[in-house]
Amino acid sequence: MTIVEMKSDGPRQPDADTVPAAEPAKEGPTEDVKIANTVADIVAGADDGGGQPIAFVYFKRHDYAIYRRGAPPQVVVAYSDAAATADQQIVAISPLLPLRDHLIRLIEDLPAKAQEHYRTQIADALRLGLERQLDTAKALLGEAIDAALAAQGRRGRLIYLQWTALALVPALILILWGGSYVQGHSGVHLLVMSVGAGALGAVLSIAIGIRARTVAIEGDWRSNAVDAAVRVGIGMISAGVLFLLLNSGIVANLSAGGVALTGKQMDWQVALVIGFAAGFLERLVPDLLEKGAPPAKPPVAQTSTGAAGVAPPGH
């Protein structure tokens, strides 16, 4: 019987596909532990030829068995006791290994119950491959990969939204603080309130993007958390910059609905709207700054000259 580990979580053995046939006997009483030396011996509770306990047997036929062992759990194939048949079985399922590896990487961060569901599908696909139904096995793994990607996306969006929601607390604090404690500091309270509103605008923009599936979700939760925090930070900075541009008069004569959005007479409602708009529309402040920048001067064309530095005839 040849045992092949279908998921490697540590350094590979010298033979990349085959687990060593057996390990030295363990010290202590082992009379109650059954060692599976043939396919027929593969049962839950026994130790396989690699010395690891068999946790669950997915499929068992007279010339192969597919089971789960180890921690983290690994899907393992015990090939036929006949070497020639085992070689044919290895060749038969080798085209499935890239799809299997892809699926294993996708489910690493999913809940344990979901991971076991996908391990069952891996075992079923390997069974189909061993039964010479390779196309069906590939289709099964392909569908499992699509489902795992969708599950990963749902989990990523939830994490993204959770970390984005954390910005609501400091945003509300900034708004309340600006409105209640620094009103006499010559417009500073309006700046603080605008920055808080910028965070709220960024949160709403992210929430709409998540609902519309336009937010790029990563497989790693840390990447989603960092991206959410960066987008909220950009919204807060943009809100502060836009408020200063309008309140200082650098951008002048701007109004909406008959209400002036510039100058020192800006009230707190306008400050909140400006901050919210800057946070919600990520490109608003960058586009405004680009329009306000002086146009680049075109390069001065130099008159061509001859070899001696004299302009050719006609110049």
Describe the structure.
The protein is of the alpha+beta class. The protein folds into two domains: 3-155, no CATH class; 166-292, no CATH class. The chain has helices at 83-93, 97-106, 112-130, 134-165, 168-180, 188-211, 221-247, 268-280, 284-292, and strands at 3-5, 54-61, 64-69, 74-78, 255-256, 259-260. The strands form two sheets. Strands 1-4-3-2 form a four-stranded antiparallel sheet, covered by helices on one side. Strands 5-6 form a two-stranded antiparallel ribbon. β2 (54-61) and β3 (64-69) form a beta hairpin. α4 (134-165) runs antiparallel to α6, α6 (188-211) packs across α7 and α7 (221-247) packs across α8 (268-280). The radius of gyration is 33 Å and the shape is rod-shaped.
Please supply descriptive tags for the structure shown above.
315 residues; alpha+beta; 2 domains; four-stranded antiparallel β-sheet; two-stranded antiparallel ribbon; 6 strands; 8% strand; rod-shaped
Please specify the SSE layout and strand pairing.
Layout: E1 3-5, E2 54-61, E3 64-69, E4 74-78, H1 83-93, H2 97-106, H3 112-130, H4 134-165, H5 168-180, H6 188-211, H7 221-247, E5 255-256, E6 259-260, H8 268-280, H9 284-292
Antiparallel strand pairs: 1-4, 2-3, 3-4, 5-6
